[in-house]
Specification:
The protein is α+β, with helices and mostly antiparallel strands. The chain is 39% helix and 21% strand. Helix 1 (7-31) crosses helix 3, helix 1 runs parallel beside helix 5 and helix 4 packs antiparallel against helix 5 (205-232).
């Protein structure tokens, strides 16, 4: 009978865990820098001033959030109704973008408005721009009142650090999905056992369950130690 999990799988799992640790640590380092918020806001400004009358004709977006993207009937999030959603990996075309009163970049698609990132300090990515095409003149009907907090953002480009942090932050979903799958393996394995004594036997399902739990525990212990080590330094 083959051993589960195999040694090769355990090695890959531990290496992925170490990669996850270093990546999230780097994300935290970048996002806690004093000028992170300032850089994030700077790239959202129009390329040549707020009076620019031209902007890209269309933006090709891809949803990168594992939970998908909520589509609303307006720029604001709290005061606008949800009219649908976009699936993870779905690619859509947007024709306008503005920053709402919460400071979130919003894109207008044929279905409605979607966010580029989540609200709050984390700013987890929801959709990313794959490409921009053409040049279009701003439609006056889409201009906001002078006293509105919303503003246009035509061709701002984020700096490399911010982009790197957003890309590395996606590993959180990958790591969570992997651990969730292994947890289901453990639960299903325990349910299939005739009794708890079977866990003490190493040559059946109980032995496999113990091995998976031991592997996950070792990874979790390593993650916790990494947190305390970083606090000491």
């Amino acid at each position: 009978e083959k051993k589960f999990p195999p040694k090769k799988f355990e090695k890959v799992f531990y290496e992925l865990s170490l990669f996850y640790q270093s990546s999230i640590y780097e994300v935290c380092r970048i996002r806690t820098e004093p000028d992170f918020e300032a850089r994030d806001l700077e790239y959202r400004k129009a390329a040549d001033g707020s009076n620019n009358s031209y902007h890209p004709a269309s933006y090709k977006l891809r949803v990168v959030c594992a939970e998908g993207a909520v589509v609303r009937d307006g720029i604001e999030i709290d005061s606008c109704e949800s009219v649908g959603g976009l699936e993870f990996g779905e690619i859509v075309e947007a024709f306008d973008r503005c920053i709402n009163s919460s400071g979130v970049m919003r894109y207008r698609t044929q279905r409605g408005w979607v966010s580029e990132q989540t609200r709050g300090h984390g700013r987890e990515p929801i959709a990313e721009v794959l490409s921009i095409q053409g040049i279009a003149k701003i439609n006056p009907s889409f201009r906001k009142p002078a006293n509105s907090k919303s503003k246009r953002a035509e061709c701002g480009v984020p700096d490399l650090c911010n982009v790197s942090a957003s890309v590395l932050a996606r590993l959180q979903n990958s790591q969570a999905s992997l651990c969730s799958c292994l947890s289901r393996v453990v639960v299903l394995g325990i349910r299939s056992l005739p009794g708890m004594r079977s866990l003490t036997q190493n040559n059946n399902i109980g032995g496999h369950v113990k091995a998976v739990v031991r592997m996950m525990s070792k990874s979790l212990h390593s993650n916790i130690n990494a947190i305390f080590s970083s606090e000491k330094t």
